[in-house]
Design a protein that fits this description.
seven-stranded mixed sheet, 11 strands, mainly beta, single chain
Amino acid sequence: QVQLVESGGGLVQAGGSLRLSCAASGRTFSMNTMAWFRPAPGKEREFVAASTWIGVVVYADSVKGRFTMSRDNAKTTIYLLMNSLKPEETAAYYCAAGTRLTNVMNQSIYDYWGQGTQVTVSS
């Protein structure tokens, strides 16, 4: 089992920044990919960014150039630095972890999910 705990959400004005964290515990050695998702209209969850243990980082087109995903050397904590936030990005942000290295934008490949951390962007 793997436990994921997100933190760092909050209220920020449009154009501002927040850094989210996701701490993983348990059998983390088997987790090859960790990612961030958020709800979106018409979708259960929308892909935001993913990082694999071999160092590949993938971003959704909507956040490229504004969001940066990183992970610590022990690969047990991931971060999402979000700059130039927009009001429409108000959502709960969920951390996910899985063993797969492919199709990382698809939420179905992830085995474990956190409870989410709320991000509210005011206009």
